[in-house]
Design a protein that fits this description.
The protein is α/β, with parallel strands linked by helices and 241 residues long. The chain is built from seven helices and eleven strands.
Amino acid sequence: MPLLADAPSLPVPWRVGEHVFVAGDTDCGKTFLVARLIQLRKHVLFVRTKLQDDTEVGGLLRVDSASAMRDMYATRLLLQPPLRRQRAEVLRALETVFRQGGWTVVVDELFYVEQKLHLRDPVEVLLTQGRSHKITVVTETQRPSRITRFALAESKHLFLFMHEGRDVLTLKEATTPRIVEAIESLRGFRFAYYGRRNRIVATGNARQLSQIIRFPSTSQPGTGQPPPEGSSGPAAPSSGV
């Protein structure tokens, strides 16, 4: 069950264009949580850079090239390119997301994408300008103190697993001092949640996610997207792209 004084305000709506930040150590339950979250969305691109990671994310078609995004019927994709093409394919995918609009894109390990693939700029473009394109960015990281500040500052929903030291200070500065108590109370696979719109603090777990967050009642059930206006999803890329 959700914990702390803000529980009566839950669940909160997760609107199109509202970014999500998820932070925690390996095996804390980040991927399981994100897999549950994206069930609320129809058009999903999950960018996975861990070559040996075979964690199942249900309902996604595994591909190794961003060219799969040209298929108007391929609306739920898990992009896992080989190492030699990793940077090029991830860059193409992020650029395609921005050009087409309407996607929920998951960046599986933000630190690696920023620091090793040197793709901080396109990630920051999506975080700061994606909302007007109806783009939602879900970022995952282990160390919140070592990634772009926009991942924290631009996210409306933050799911924070157990942290300590400098990372807790970073999270406190980016949210509210009340988040410290919530993080210190965590055990097992529980997370602390911070909703930026109403400064809500709560704790929960992924199996009871519906008690924390929901898609707005104006959305189409099961999609998390607003009713289409002449289109069923992201716009097709222009010819020759």
